[in-house]
Design goal:
six-stranded mixed beta sheet; 2 helices; 144 residues; disordered N terminus
Amino acid sequence: MTKSPLRMTATVGLFVLLAGLTVSAQSGTLRGYVPFDFVVGTTTMEAGTYSIALSGISGTSLAIKNGSHAVAILSSGRKSDLSDKPTRLVFHRYGQRYFLREVWFAGDRGQTLPELHEERVLIDEQWRIAGSGPVTVAVMASAR
């Protein structure tokens, strides 16, 4: 069983507020601007405006798309005890590489994306070089 890097490391939180990220909590969709390139599964997505929606029969995957890229990835649902947290995208950063790891709708309802081989290699490298795990970056918004 693989432990989450958040549990294995003391993570530094970096929060970036972005105007223009809009959320529809009822439909499980959000749309907004991500200011950096990021990885989803095995696909690198360019910085830009994205639509992210729950999909699948029981909402077990995410559809992430912009004008030129689209990817669907399996995810697992999560519920938080902290319902007052803002809607957000959570990335793990290693140097200049960002990996989308969580999408939180309506504060306490989230989806976790799997940690793939490339990220595990970077985690090991980060520990060897810096003695710490990933930096967590959250892109936040308010529900509209």
